[in-house]
Write a structure and sequence with these properties.
The complex is a heterodimer of chains A (151) and B (105).
Chain A: H1 5-31, H2 38-43, H3 45-76, H4 86-95, H5 101-114, H6 122-148
Helix pairs in contact in A: 1-3, 1-6, 3-5, 3-6, 5-6
Chain B: H1 5-18, E1 24-28, E2 41-46, H2 53-71, E3 76-81, H3 90-98, E4 100-104
Parallel strand pairs in B: 2-3
Antiparallel strand pairs in B: 1-2, 1-4
The chains are: A mainly alpha (151), B alpha+beta (105).
Amino acid sequence: MTAPPVDRLALARWEADRHAAVLDDALARWRALPAPSLEAIESDPALRQLTDQILFRFIKLQDTMGERLIPATLGWLVEPFEDWPMRDRLDRLEKLGYLDVEAWLRWREIRNRLAHEYPDAPELRHAQLLAAIAGAADILAAYRLWAGRLP
Amino acid sequence: MRLTLQERSAIAEAARATLVAGTQVSLFGSRTDDQARGGDIDLLVETPLPMPAAELVARRQAFVARLYRLLGERRIDVVMASPATAVTPPVVASARQQAVELVRT
């Protein structure tokens, strides 16, 4: 049985809030550090754990938003979204001011790249890591704005 | 090569919208093999001038995001290469060997 719209929304928010809280804390610890080199990140276990935590929560927050928050928000808005492909759901939410589709798709690109280890040159891997951390901060800010418009 | 007309025109449109003038985009990997089936769309993007790593990564993000918008989210793998690289990474060298040019912006 499908949960009523408000329950689905509360469940989606509960889950997203948990990822957001850990991500927020991890990003604060990251920002408190002097910008580390790739060698430092790859050789210092504590730094590697911190970046892994940021990336993991970035993926989880994005997945929760994509799989739960998007349908729950559209349901709460009484939009007939059930048969819409993802692209139409994103376009509708952008029109309603909940998200920026271009940014969302860039986060998807980051997420899909994180799923593999690529044999890129070290400077590219470092830039990719920093871009992913910046993406994590951006999605957290976007989630907060989105959540602020919900009941 | 196994790309539909729609896929080829989406790649050209995304490249012109997000990559600098003079960039060459080529197909490599299993999609260059007419006998294979399925597989990721592997693209090699070669910039005409040296570019900082952060910009290569930002442009790759924008290029793939535009492709997702035009084609839906697909398995697309983009290798970025810039002439500044002193040592050609093996992944770039091997991509170049199979590369079939699709578009030059």
